[in-house]
Amino acid sequence: MEESSKRSEQRKEMEKERKKGEKKRRKEEEEEEEEILIFNHKSAEKEKEDEDLSDSEDSVFSGLEDSGSDSEDDDDDDEDLKVDQNLSQQEEEEEEEEDVQSSLKKKDEEEEVKRDEYEHDSSDEEDIRNTVGNIPMEWYKDFPHIGYDLDGKKIYKPIRNKDELDDFLDKMENPDYWRTVQDKQTGSDVVLSDEQVELVKRLQRGQFGDVNFNEYQPQVEFFTQEVMLHPVTNRPADKRSFIPSLLEKDKVSKLVHAIKMGWIKPRRDSRDDSRGRYYDLWASEDTSNLARHRMHLPAPKIPLPGHHESYNPPPEYLFTDEERALWEQQDPVDRKFPFVPRSFSSLRLVPAFPRFIHERFERCLDLYLCPRQRKMRVNVNPEDLIPKLPKPKDLQPFPTTQSLVYRGHSGLVRSISVSPSGQWLASGSDDGSVRFWEICSSRCLKTVQVGGAVKSVAWNPNPSVCLLAVALDSAVLILSPALADRQVVLSSDRLLSAPQEAEPIEGDGLVNWSDTEGEELNQGIRLKIQHPKAVQQVAWHTKGDYLASVMPDHSSHLQVLIHQVSRRRSQNPFRKNKGLVQSVSFHPIRPYFFVATQRSVRIYNLVKQDLTKKLHANSKWISSMAVHPGGDHVICGSYDCKLSWFDLDLSTKPYRMLRHHRKAVRSVAYHRLYPLFASAADDGSIIVCHGTVYNDLLQNPLIVPVKVLRGHVITHELGVLDVTFHPTQPWIFSSGADATIRLFT
């Protein structure tokens, strides 16, 4: 009741406002008509005056005037007559204006009488200008008119040629855009007044339209709270309310038949309002970019429930005690079913599913995270994806079995080196000794006690001399073991006994060259090069006259020294510290010098004395380095289990990264003659790989792992510490933390 009274009051207010607006419009029209009538009347009077003036002029100049012989009295009389005439004319004009105004008022009164006060008003608030009634205006959506007036003529829609851009500009520029609404009955735009806007705001806030309405007024109780004894009506329901209507059935069948025959076409869906309102902005664009969005796939459907999800499944689908215990022990991800199948006698006894919300949420997550895009499946043979590598049998010879074990050291054997002739093997250990072995018989021919842990040994690669460089603590010893023939021993003595030059060279003040005497000389130690810091590695030049030593130190640029044995002089090639140096090596052919730091390998030109190339190993800490006999390829081992192969003609980044070891790679080596290289690691294994380098620059190197050699025992978490190949045979030597040296052939 309250709502109906509120609605009626709102309707009355809107009727009053509409009547006020119509009266205001009528007044404006009446004022305009009055102004037009007054203007027409004045123009007519002016024309009359002009005619009167012309008549008076004719009378003045018609020759009927007095000749001027009258007296002054006659002149005064004439003036009085003229004044009287003017007054009479003014009075006549005023009377005529009053008559016009009275006639206009009479006309207005007659028009008001003729006008119907309720011409645009009705009891049900329908706009009488459009007589279509209370129907959905979408029915006229596809027609040029929007309804019919009282005379039965079509009311055409206003021309609306605005697109989205014009609508946006109107929104930005028109200050009344926000209060402009479209009248669906007439299709015109209506600007709401402040009172109407306030009314809409109140209704949107859920308040009453009338400001003065009291929503908390006492309720009028039309019905009592007492339950009556007799009902209002107890008439039994009709029989027709339980039986389908035959008339309606007949009408529906006729309509269905007409639709099937095409006589009646069903109404188009009113929600499909895309026609005419929107247009494709990218219609002229290339369709290749849009094709990606058409590859969309619908969401996958939920699998249909099976027997185990039934409320009364067969007994074989129910869990036994063992299956129930196993299901409870399993992880939720590994379970076959997310629930335990149960049996109920009837559907009424089935309780609510406790994981229903979780299951729906997981389903939503699956739909949200599912990459629904059609993948172009390419039919590829899986065997074609595997690179076609030659069989290891076709790549022989390479070492396969352990042949000899050289025992005698009591500490870690950190370094080994093979003589250029391939007959002798030298090894240095933490027990302070350097041992010389005969390779074929594994017999130790000579042991030299140097008095400290040996970090590195290197045999002179020149076959015309027989010298061995040993690094221990802060000294480098040059040994002449006298294991070769007499001619080689004499040439070695000649090289060591050359006179020292008097020219001081940079680095000479830091390095002390001295000859040995007494017991050291008897053991074969000929020269002692004293360094300022601990020496970690020694490396010979191919010609056998130059020797490089490495002293890793973060704080100094004095990390690498190059010594010339024949002239007994040393020099520091670097003035700046470029990182912690790990290993150095000479190029086998060209005057290049390789320096491996923790992260990179720098290649220097010794002739031009500048940096030629910098190789990025992509590893955390480089441990060892080896240069290919051809000089165009370098391999680096690192403590993060990687082996990097660099092609110097290809790139400064690794051509291939091998991750075959499980622990830190300690040593890498190339074979001088065969296409073989090897790596040794702390996992106790040596991996031999076949690496063929082609003369054709367009053909990449062929790298194939062929054999994993094992034999060393891991001691103190250290495995194989050094590895080197035989100079002429496809054999490999390895030294480990178990104080043994092993030969694999």
Automatic annotation (TrEMBL):
Question: Where do the WD repeats lie?
Answer: 406-447, 713-745
Q: Where in the cell is it found?
A: Nucleus, Nucleolus; Nucleus, Nucleoplasm
Q: Name one GO cellular component term.
A: PeBoW complex
This protein's major location comes to nucleus
What's one Pfam family here?
A: BOP1NT
Basic and acidic residues bias located where? 1-20, 105-121
- What's this protein's family per the entry? Belongs to the WD repeat BOP1/ERB1 family.
**PANTHER family attached to this UniProt entry:** RIBOSOME BIOGENESIS PROTEIN BOP1, RIBOSOME BIOGENESIS PROTEIN BOP1 BLOCK OF PROLIFERATION 1 PROTEIN
What name appears for this protein in its UniProt entry? Ribosome biogenesis protein BOP1
Q: Which organism is it from?
A: Xyrichtys novacula (Pearly razorfish)
The gene that this protein is the product of is BOP1
